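Chapter review: from sequence to fold.
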Amino acid sequence: MSEINREAFLGIDTSNYRTSVALYYTDGTYISSRKLLPVPFGEKGLRQNDAVFAHVKQFSEVFDKLDLENTVIKGVGVSFAPRNTAGSYMPCFSFGCSVAEALAHTMNVPCLRFSHQQGHIAAGLVSCGRLDLFEHPFYAVHASGGTTEIVSVAGIENITISAKTRDISIGQLIDRTGVALGLSFPSGPELENLADGCKDKFKIKINLKDGDCCLSGYENKVSDFINQGKTSEYIASYITEVCGYTLSEMLLFLQKQDSRPVLCAGGVMANERIKNIINDSFSKNDYEPPNFASVELSGDNAVGIAYLAYNNLMFNKGEI
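The token string follows.
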């Protein structure tokens, strides 16, 4: 195949955080384009109608950055819902589905739907070179702005929750802490930078309920720290360690029941300190080191969705 006629699969993901598009080429390479949804300063997120409107305004800008010249699109994949379960729904994904179906119809190619979570898992495996895990059961951490779940994966079509948060997500705890400290939303990278400025040691006790975590109490702790005059660096460091040790304890709880390879994906997993805490806990307990999605593909993106379209259509696996 010549360079002027490369075949690729288009992926589209319109989450409540980012507008994302990607091309996954049949030679195993990919390119992507993404942009955060604009959130007014001081706000903790967007209402769904505002998120949909933001996607409408910026989709063409994001899409135009893909290099479609001399590219033959063989199929389109799109995120249709947060999870691939009955009742899982967010309006912002409906916009992406409408665009994907229109593009697929215009190009006369198939359009396949996948969940946002399936896209995260696939993108993580693509980015860390562990596509072989699709052939074996493994645990996948999905820690992002709206989700904190550890799922059991036995093929991308067979995903079940093994452990989860019972209240707010780790991403929400990070973002709400950041906003309380005067940071922009989403707050992950800024909070990580603040945390690096604190050298205090913390004694953090994580309480799980059958492997599930509860995090809202730590949000209340942030308010207490602010009232006590604790520095922003201190608070950021404390919350970062809470997140890292929470995920570590959840994973260790599952590993003791059924030890499996682990993939960590989602925007939260771009945090180096959280990664280090998880790695250290696995090393101390003699478990196989976890696989982490790259920083580039930890957050919401369409690379995983494009890969899933490629994998299904090229190998006649049908729609999930």
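Two observations follow directly from the output. The radius of gyration is 20 Å. The mean pLDDT is 94.
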